[in-house]
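Lab notebook page, bench 4
Experiment: in silico fold of construct C2
Operator: M.H.
Input chain length: 119 residues
Purpose: comparison with the prior construct
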Amino acid sequence: QVQLVESGGGLVQAGGSLRLSCAASGSIFSISALGWYRQAPGKQRELVATITSGGSTNYVDFVKGRFTISRDNAKNTVYLQMNSLKPEDTAVYYCNAATVVAGIGVNYWGQGTQVTVSS
């Protein structure tokens, strides 16, 4: 079992910045990758960025150059630095942990944190 607790959401004006944090606990050894997803009202949850245990990162096109994912292994925490925010970035942001135990993959999710960008 992995528990994820997000923080750092809020209301910001367009062009502003926010940093999201996600603290992981529990079976940390089983985590192969951490990531951030988001879900806007009336839309499906979508991938934003991921980072592997080795530090490799992946971003979707609409956040490249604006968002940065990073992790602090000593604190078991993953961050999402969001710059140049746009109103269309408004969504609930979810932290995800992809785990593999005995060859079986299991995803864990945080409770989500609201990000609202005003125009």
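Observations: The two ends are 40 Å apart (CA to CA). The chain has no helices and eleven strands.
Next step: discuss at group meeting.
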